[in-house]
Design brief:
The chain has 159 residues and is mostly helical. The protein is 82% helix and 0% strand. The two termini are 19 Å apart.
Length: 159
């Protein structure tokens, strides 16, 4: 009897860990809306400040995008761990994975967004191009980040 119960629990856990879309995606979107608003306010405020200070194009792209990621990630970690994925892992287990996931998503998403936006919107003004790059990087980051958190950072242990 115990063996059958244990086997059923293991099957449910394996199904949960391999299912791409479930209720976590809705929760992730809700958390993402909050993170996005907070992160974008910080990002565009820092873009505005850097522009007023006369920062060059590279600095006024990577610093605001980084501010967005840092501010949004702090809230994201707390909310996704406890609300979205209801993870029972300790901070020691998942904080390192979370940081690595965020860094990879950041470099990939924003590294792709800026050159792609420059290619597609060749005739856009400098500020419009920055805004398009930052917004598209943020969207791409969110998509990649969901899968990293869902299937690696907060994946339930199959022990």
């Amino acid at each position: 009897m115990y063996s059958k119960l244990k086997e059923d629990q293991q099957m449910k856990l394996e199904e949960k860990n391999t299912k791409v879309f479930d209720n976590t995606i809705i929760k992730f979107i809700i958390v993402g809306i909050v993170n996005t608003i907070v992160g974008w306010v910080a990002m565009f405020l820092s873009l505005w400040l850097l522009t007023k200070m006369g920062a060059n194009h590279t600095i006024s792209y990577w610093i605001p995008s980084g501010v967005n990621i840092v501010v949004g990630s702090i809230a994201s970690y707390i909310l996704n761990k406890h609300f979205t994925f209801q993870s029972n892992t300790t901070g020691k287990e998942d904080i390192g994975k979370f940081i690595i996931n965020i860094l990879i998503c950041y470099v990939v998403a924003y590294g792709i967004a800026q050159p792609l936006a420059k290619q597609i919107f060749k005739h856009a003004g400098v500020m419009l191009l920055k805004i398009i790059s930052l917004l598209s990087g943020s969207i791409l980051f969110t998509i990649i980040n969901y899968f990293g958190q869902r299937f690696w950072v907060f994946k339930e242990d199959e022990k």
